[in-house]
Amino acid sequence: MNKTLISIVGPTAIGKTALSIKLANHFNTEILSTDSRQFFKEMQIGTAAPTPEELAAAKHHFIHHKSITDTYNVGAFEKDAIHVLNTLFKTHDTVIMVGGSGLYVDAVTKGLDDFPEVASHIRESLNKDLATKGLSHLQEQLMQLDTVAYNSIAIDNPHRVIRALEICIGTGKPYSSFLKKGKLKRPFKTITVGLTAERSTIYDRINKRVDIMMQEGLLDEVKSLISFKKLNALNTVGYKELFNYLNAEWTLDFAVSEIKKNTRRFAKRQLTWFKKNDETLWFDFMTPKEVIINQINQKIS
């Protein structure tokens, strides 16, 4: 256990990328991204991916390494990330990991939960229900079958809702009952650093970030992807709302306001997820990097 993974978590727009680069430079190491939408090279602006300058400031892994047309999931990411970590730990004592996708963070630090196989026709039936009855119908079904899962998963993500429901229906047991069983022991120590702020500050930073994204050309980025809008990768805040505008269902002002609202909801869910880890070192987002580094070094030693 002489190798250390420093995992930086927190809500969107809080400053995780900037801190990860500072820490990577201080520890002379590299960065793994666990932002599941920054994997896709076609999604630059709407995912707030690191800029070319930020990518040049420290070596990054899992940024824009996939296409939205590729099949890629958390299980594949876990295998890829552990392979990269094993390679990096041969020459580095410390590696930085950063991102706001809680399931992907946990896949690396704890390993994935072990779910039983269920009949494929259950998922097919749920996908039909999604197409004919809508996501809200599936959400209500999950709330009845597994309140814990309903309150903890990304409830606006149809893929996650269907996954939870197929386990509930296929096993007759709550999806949440299979969580946190048989976690793997990793051959490295993980120190988790969380960035946070008052909720009003987080929301203000989110609103400003969305305005900046629009100024930087988010609408044009979404226009270029409209022929792929049914792909799961694009069922993402910032994209799905602008697809509604481009389909003449919403005004642009309303679409932008919905991006802000849905991003704020996402940030709230992120905090709920990350607060479950009692060992996280939480810092206000304005905390000087020297203070954070000092506490990390105390943990390492």
TrEMBL record:
Binding positions (ATP): G10, P11, T12, A13, I14, G15, K16, T17
Site positions per UniProt: Interaction with substrate tRNA: S101, R123
Enzyme class per UniProt: transferase
Coiled coil: none
Reaction catalyzed: adenosine(37) in tRNA + dimethylallyl diphosphate = N(6)-dimethylallyladenosine(37) in tRNA + diphosphate
EC number(s) reported in the record: 2.5.1.75
Record's keyword terms, sorted: ATP-binding, Magnesium, Nucleotide-binding, Transferase, tRNA processing
Positions of region (Interaction with substrate tRNA): 35-38
Highest taxon above the source species: Bacteria
Cofactor(s) this protein cannot do without: Mg(2+)
One Pfam family this sequence matches: IPPT
Binding-site list for substrate: T12, A13, I14, G15, K16, T17
Keyword Protease: no
Presence of keyword Membrane: no
Subunit structure and binding partners: Monomer.
PANTHER family in UniProt: TRNA DIMETHYLALLYLTRANSFERASE
Annotated family: Belongs to the IPP transferase family.
Protein name (record): tRNA dimethylallyltransferase
Organism: Flavivirga algicola
Gene coding for it: miaA
